[in-house]
Sequence to fold (223 residues):
Amino acid sequence: GQQLNQSPQSMFIQEGEDVSMNCTSSSIFNTWLWYKQDPGEGPVLLIALYKAGELTSNGRLTAQFGITRKDSFLNISASIPSDVGIYFCAGQLGAGNMLTFGGGTRLMVKP
Amino acid sequence: DAGVIQSPRHEVTEMGQEVTLRCKPISGHNSLFWYRQTMMRGLELLIYFNNNVPIDDSGMPEDRFSAKMPNASFSTLKIQPSEPRDSAVYFCASSFTEGGYTFGSGTRLTVV
Fold:
């Protein structure tokens, strides 16, 4: 079946630094999603991407849908302590199909 | 919109006891998913329903696990009998045909 490789598995950075994480797949997806999970809560949708090459921003977050449709990245600029959590990528083949989740990137921010 | 509501938030039970986790999806969503999250295995899909019908339960670990969705606004995940290795956070999520999932806050299960 489809698998998503998400990297890095964890990051420990200084407040104010930029962060980059990515997901790669062995097969194509038509939708890429990025979620954030705060400690003790469920994952919450941050950004959804629906077209190859699409670049979308949400505040300090920027995500891109790779041209090959097999990868996506998420950047966080000027990190702050509340960015701490686990970030998950997810791919969807089409409407009505299930999401395939990556293994998550655990982000820790040092004030 | 109250979001996906799960109960209880925390459950501590003794090995061998029956555990029932509950989920109320977002009104109008037609798909419901049960996930288990552990440090070792990350997010694992256990089962999902579409229009209240179980579609794929291949992720259910054993016969000790069962899930029901008697109507569009309620689902349960039952573990009987529970074992210490079932300790995890269990998430329910719902979605409409298009778009991502909305997750509940989870139930943290500890089996001692």
Remarks:
- Chain B has no helices and eleven strands.
